[in-house]
Amino acid sequence: MTPKLITHFIGKPQLDFMMELHIDAEDGDNTILDHLAAVTETISTMPKTYETDGQGDKALVFLHYFSSGSDWWITERDCEEDQLQAFGFVCLNGDREMAELGYIDIEELGRAGVELDLYWQVKPLSDVKRELGLPHQAARIH
């Protein structure tokens, strides 16, 4: 059984697949559950709305979602556990010129089949932008 918090941040298809892998794993192999526990811990301790104000590109990116050349990097989640909105940096369809900071509907990402990167390592937003070849001030703020 997965904690309720994680079900808000991982889409049902991805979560169902992970649970199926866990069921099919050899006895004692808890790799999938370990990943879910680590992601749950990250989500429960990451900054909430407005807690990274003023940090700019020094804000840490805690979660990464991806699908078909689009990426979402999450720096904050809403204060309310049941609120499925987050704040972060988005690059849609690989269009780096249009990459921007803004609010992201986590539930909508899950419904669209966007996957949560279970191997993401927390890093500053400046590193993400550097990896994309963007100057630090390239993002627009909504």
Please describe the structure with a list of short key phrases separated by commas or semicolons.
globular, 142 residues
Biggest sheet, open or closed, and with what strands and sense?
Answer: 6 strands, mixed
- Strand fraction band? 15-25%
Write down the Rg: 15 Å
Structural class: alpha+beta
Q: Biggest sheet: strands side by side, in what order?
A: 6-2-3-4-5-8
Q: Provide mean pLDDT, rounded.
A: 86
Q: Count of helical segments?
A: 5
Instruction: Please give the share of residues in helix.
Output: 25-40%
Shape: globular
Number of domains: 1
Instruction: List segments where confidence is low: pLDDT < 50 over at least 5 consecutive residues.
Output: 138-142
The number of E-state strands comes to 8
* SSE string, helices as H and strands as E: HHHEEEEEHEEHE
CA distance, first residue to last residue: 38 Å
Structure description:
The chain is α+β, with helices and mostly antiparallel strands. The protein has one domain (4-141). Helices cover 34% and strands 24% of the residues. The protein has five helices and eight strands; from the N terminus they run αααβββββαββαβ. The chain has helices spanning 4-9, 12-24, 31-45, 106-111, 125-132, and strands spanning 60-61, 63-67, 70-77, 85-91, 100-105, 115-116, 123-124, 140-141. The strands form two sheets. The protein has a six-stranded mixed beta sheet.
